[in-house]
Amino acid sequence: MTLPHLQIRDDDKVRILTLDRPEAKNALNGPLRSALRDALAAADRDDGIRAVVLTGAGPVFSAGVDFKQLERGPGENGGPLDTTPAAALRAMRTPTICAVNGACVSGALEVALSCSFIVASEQARFADTHALLGVVPTWGLTALLPRAVGVRKARQMSITGEFVDAHEALCLGLVNQVVPHDHLMDTVTAMARRIPANTAVGEMLGLYARGEDLSLAGALAAETALSVGRTYDLEAFTAAGNATAARQRNHGEN
């Protein structure tokens, strides 16, 4: 399936979304923003999808918002964060993995930071160029970037617009893993397949999201509150435990 400049395909319960405007460095114009937002919502509604992978048609991930085409896309009302792809990603209960295959700039960096986690190829580079363009971020960068790399590095990246390469991004905590470029999609889809297809995944992501705005005591209380009154199927729990142990043994042998 293809929406405006967005490729969509499924691979063993993993939905892969590929930004596809290579002639414009996959810049997010109005139609692409709307297509991406709608595709994310559709994936989140689909109980058969265990994870979403977001990547770009090479050689870049995305140059961010297309400042040459600032028209609104279908469904965009000019309001604040509620209509952006980044906000759609942060609202998802389905895990999202951003597979960054090249340059990831400004609005695209906000999108990547809004995913559950980020895997980068060795060719990935990250930058915030808002200040260079004389504009201020509106998709959450000033909240998300310092939480990933620390406020001092975030200030430096935003004020200077300098690029951070994949290996520095790993050292900073901006990405979870760096892999050889040709292995990026295989690595990410294999990672996505290891995510269990159960409601606990979405609930844990929700707890992590809530905990970002809470004290330690508040985050602990939120976790406790979620478990109060819950019952578990002991037979299913035991079967899942045995399957997990077997998988770990097989992984160790390989």
TrEMBL record:
SUPFAM superfamilies: ClpP/crotonase. InterPro entries: ClpP/crotonase-like_dom_sf, Enoyl-CoA_hydra/iso. Its EC number is 4.2.1.17. Transmembrane segments: none annotated. Keywords: Lyase. One of its GO terms (molecular function) is enoyl-CoA hydratase activity. The keyword Lyase applies. It is an enzyme of class 4 (lyase). Belongs to the enoyl-CoA hydratase/isomerase family. This is Enoyl-CoA hydratase. It comes from Mycolicibacterium septicum.
